Amino acid sequence: MLGEALSSRHYSKATESGIFEPLVEIGEPVEAGQAIGQIHSLDAAGLEASVQRFPLSGLVYCRRALGRIKVGETVAVLARERQDS
Q1: How far apart are CA 72 and CA 37, in angstroms?
Q2: What's the average model confidence in pLDDT over 28-56?
Q3: Which domain holds residue 56?
C-alpha cells in the first residue's frame, strides 16, 4: 500500500500541554474517533488525562513518543491509501 498524508486533517495536534502517553503503535490501522493517546497535565495534578483522538481512519504513519508535549504540537500523522488517477 502506498500512503499519503496531504491534508492537515491527517495531522493530529495536541489540545493541551503535559506528558503525552501513546496508546497506538506505528503501522497500526485505526478508525476515526479512536484514541491516539492521552495527555497528563503538569499544572493540574489529580485531573483526569485528556484523551486525544484521530479525526480520520487510516494507518498510523508516525506518532509522538512518551514525553512532554505542548499545545499545537503534532501527536500523530495518519496515512491513507493513495488514490492514483
Answers
A1: 15
A2: 90
A3: 3-74
